[in-house]
User: Fold this.
Amino acid sequence: MQQMQQRPMGITLLSTLALLAAIGAAFQAFASVDPGSVGLFGHVQAGSGFGLAAAGFLIATGIYLELAYGLWQTKGWAWILMLVLAIVHIAFNVGAAFLGGASWALAIGGSIVPLIILVYLATPGVRRAFGF
Assistant:
């Protein structure tokens, strides 16, 4: 019989944060469809692109829910997804700085947490918990 390994505390935290991100994205999807209903933006004109934004937030909701589940269950694919999301986040920050959409200070500041996550995911105990 195989002994079950305990989930690392940092992974529990990341899973919980992913669940909170899913809730936030779902709220944003709702607000994008009918912003007046939550009192944030007032009346939305037809063709304003809020439906597309809502679809994007719904996709993000699904991704974050899956990530929260996978991290909680220490599934190998969730480790890979978290790694990819952290790298993409850093790439967007650096790209925004190169294209002038953000200052370098903002890009570096916005990349600190994803870098910490990358380093944490690379630790032997976390890799072992996910079967790597």
The mean pLDDT is 84. Residues 32 and 52 are 9 Å apart (CA to CA). Helices lie at 9-33, 35-38, 50-72, 76-98, 104-121, 124-129.
